[in-house]
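This part of the workshop introduces the protein records we will be handling. A record pairs a protein's sequence with a compact description of its fold. As an example, a complete record with its sequence and its C-alpha cells follows.

_____
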Amino acid sequence: MILNPSLSFEHYLQTLPADWLGGFWFHWGVFVVIILAFVFSMVMGFIYIERRVIGRFQVRLGPNRVGPFGLLQPVADAIKIVLKEDIVPAKGDKWVYWLAPVVAFVPALMIFAVVPFHDGALLADLNIGILYVVAISSVSTVGIFMAGWGSNNKYSLIGAMRTVAQVVSYEIPLVLSITGVVLITGSLSMNKIVEMQTVPFILLQPLGFLIFFLAACAEINRTPFDLLEADSEIVAGFHIEYSGMKFALFYLVEYAETLAISAIITTIFLSGWRGPVLPPFLWFLIKVFGVFLVIIWVRSTIPRLRIDQVMAFAWKCLLPLALLNLLITGIEVIVLPETLPWPVIFLNLAIMAVLVVLWSKFFRLGGGRVEV
C-alpha cells in the first residue's frame, strides 16, 4: 500500500526525528528557505557558467565587463529585466496570460522537495519520490500552453503546441528509462535509491542513462530539441508577447528545470551525495555542475533538429530502446546474482553500444528539405 489513511499529513513529509529542534513545521520552513536559496543561487550561477562556456566553444570571451570576470552579469541582467515595461496584448486572455508564468514556475520548484542533498536532508522523503517528480515536472507544460493561448498570437500558439507534442512524446521513454533503476532497487524513494548505489547506476544502466538524458533535454527544450523557440520559424516561440517580470519567470523556469534535471540525474544515476573524502553536499554540487556542463557541451556542439526529426527520434529510436532496456534489466535482475556487479557493467556497456549502432542503421530520421 502506498498511502495509509490512518497516518497524518506530517508523517509523509517528516524526514527528521520528531524531537528535532522546532518540530515538523520548523523543519518544513527551514527546508523551504534552503530550497529557494539553493535554486535561485544555482540558477544565477548556471546562467553565468553557460554564457562563459559557450563563449569559449565559439572562440570568444563571453560576459567579462560587469564585475570581476563578469560575475555580476546575471545581476545586471536581472535588474534590466525588472525595469522593462510590462506589455500585455490588447486582445489576449488576460487571466490566462498573467497566470501562465506562475503555473510554469511553481512546479519547477516543487521538484526539489524530494531531491536529497544528503542522507535524509530533504523536505519530504516520499516512498513514491520518482513518481512525484515525473508527475510534477509535466505540470510546467500547462503553463507554457497557457502562455501560447493567452497571448493571442499564432506564433506563440505554435510554439506552445510544439512543447506539448514534445512532452507527450518524450515522457514515455523517460519514464521507462527510470523503471530500470526501480527494478534494481525495488524502491521509488529518491533517498533509498542513493543509498542502494554501491556502484553508480550510470554503469549498471548506461542505456537507461542515455535515454533519460536525451528525453529530459527534449522535455526542458534544450538544444538540439528547442523547437518551441526556433526563431527562424516562429520568432521567439510561446513567450513572444511577454516582457518584464513575466518574461523573467519563464527565463527562470528554463534554468530551474535544467537544474532539476541535473539534480535528478545526479541522484538516480551518479549516486547522489556519495563520494570519498569531500563532504556529501559538496559531492552533490560537483556532480550537478558536471551534468550541467555536459548539457552545455551538447548545446554548443549539435545543431537544432527539425520538428519531424524530433518526433521521429522519440517514437522510432528512444521508445524501442527504452523497452529493450527494460526487458534486459528485468532478465538481469532475475538471472544474475546481486553480488557480481562488474560483469554486469561490462555486459550492459556492450549491449548499449550494439543497440545504439544497430538502431542508427535501421532507422533514419530523414534528410533533405521537408515542408511541415
Notes: The mean pLDDT is 83. The chain is about 65% helix and 0% strand. Residues 23-57 form the longest helix (35 residues).
